[in-house]
Amino acid sequence: MIPKQEAITKSEEQLIAYLKEQILKLLPLYELALRSTI
Question: Does the global pTM surpass 0.90?
Answer without folding.
Answer: no
